[in-house]
Amino acid sequence: MQPENPESYSAPAKATWPATAVPGRPGAHLRATQADDADPDLSGDADARSADEAETPSGPDAIPDAEPTHGSKLLDELRAQIAQFVIPPSQEALDAITLWVAATHLQPAWQHAPRLAVVGPAKRCGKSRLLDVLTETVHEPMLTINTTPAAIFRSITEENPPTLLVDEADTIFGTPKMAEKNEEMRGLLNAGHQRNRYVTRVVGNDHTPHRFATFAMAAIAGIGDLPDTVMDRAIVIRMRRRAEGEKVKPFRSRRDIPALHDLRDRIAAWARPLLDEAANLEPDMPVEDRAADTWEPLVIVADLAGGRWPRLARVACVRMVAAEEAAEEDHPSGARILADIRRVFYSQREVDSLSTEELLHHLRQDPEAPWAEWGRGGLAARELSRMLRTYEIKSGNVRMADRTQRKGYMRNKFLDAWRRYCPTVHPVDTQAAPPGEPPAVH
């Protein structure tokens, strides 16, 4: 419970953490406030009831805002401070950054330590400036410039993990050669997303095996996307270069750091008594699987703070996860190839099979797809086979209309992969619909 007198808090010189709480222990369950009961006068009028439901917000937007609390006011203040120095790509991104910073002050409560991936397409997008602000507001910042993975995991403690801050990640993962050289760093960032994932190293002259903790929240900034395994464990902030007319306050250490430190200490003082409560909460999440694991600490912080933040957290979660799923589907290395093959089969009237040659021809014909320029002469059969093998889809002998046999792909081999990896429906051009059938989705 939150203390009634916020003025009673004082910023301690050094945090003394209680024993690590056990994440996932049965406890309180937060439930979104339900909508008001339906008007009984409308109970017999289905049309009127349907009209009312169509106008009523649903999902995260339907969560009503409560009265501001001490915690919600602290988050509002933090949000305003961050917005002075950087322009995030959306209001939802700004909300997510704010909640992520606050969540670093409750790390012993979490089962998962979300990464904050701050990426942009080019220089001067505000990535490093955002890391400057994070450094002064997160719990126990640990800058990892020129720091070896061995030094990092030797600096992580289970009772009080630091917050890792990695800038210029493109110099670590920017090319396949760099990524291979820094595979241990990627492994550390992946393992540290979940509690109780250790690395074992031999120490001392007698080479005694020793387990080192890896669990710690981390913010990683760089040009271009990070490795897929890191992005999949991250809240992704896609920064953009400021447009003409967009202004930010210059960051000056002498002037700005004292105010940020004061706010950081007040957030830590608010959060510390809530450690056990945070570990016990199991909020309803608007997303599933790893996305839910990653966003849960932010949603819990929002629920503890109250005010408008439970709604803001869930809206940000839904919209940002959906945006990343759409980006993943459009990426050639992801489900893009499956979605484009689905379009080919539909445009060919859902035939049972296509030869490899036919399928490649149709894939290369799409002017907005990458397949015509894939490699030297466009996507080739061997590369197509390699991509589909990931989804356990293999070519085989297929019978053509002229009764000959060629190497190709059966449509029914794709059905399970389509259902699992690209279920999003997309409208199809009406001109592509088979005769006698309405326009479809695929």
| Biggest sheet features | 5 strands, parallel
CATH fold-type name of the largest domain: Rossmann fold
Helix content class:
40-55%
- Helix/sheet category: alpha/beta
Distance between the termini: 49 Å
**What's the helix count?**
17
Rg, Å, rounded = 26 Å
CATH architectural designation of the largest domain: 3-Layer(aba) Sandwich
Give helix and strand order, one letter per element, not per position: HHHEHEHEHHHEEEHEHHHHHEHHEEH
Low-confidence stretches: 1-54, 425-442
Adjacency order of strands in the biggest sheet: 2-3-6-1-7
CATH class assignment of the largest domain: Alpha Beta
Number of strands: 10
Shape: globular
How many individual domains?
2
* Beta-strand content bin: 5-15%
Average pLDDT over all residues: 81
InterPro entries: DUF3631 (IPR022081)
Protein name: DUF3631 domain-containing protein
Pfam family, one: DUF3631
Domain DUF3631: 238-421
Fold and architecture overview:
Residues 1-70 are annotated as: Disordered. This is DUF3631 domain-containing protein. Residues 238-421 form the DUF3631 domain. The model is unreliable at 1-54 and 425-442 (pLDDT under 50). With 442 residues, this protein is of the alpha/beta class. The chain has helices at residues 46-55, 70-85, 91-103, 127-137, 149-153, 170-173, 176-181, 183-191, 228-231, 253-271, 275-280, 289-305, 309-330, 336-347, 356-365, 381-389, 415-421, and strands at residues 115-120, 141-143, 163-166, 198-203, 208-213, 218-223, 234-238, 353-355, 396-399, 405-410. β9 (396-399) and β10 (405-410) form a beta hairpin. The strands form three sheets. Strands 2-3-6-1-7 form a five-stranded parallel sheet. It folds into two domains: 62-330, 3-Layer(aba) Sandwich (Rossmann fold), CATH 3.40.50; 336-432, Orthogonal Bundle (Arc Repressor Mutant, subunit A), CATH 1.10.10. 41% of the residues lie in helices and 11% in strands. The protein has 17 helices and ten strands. The longest helix has 22 residues, at 309-330.
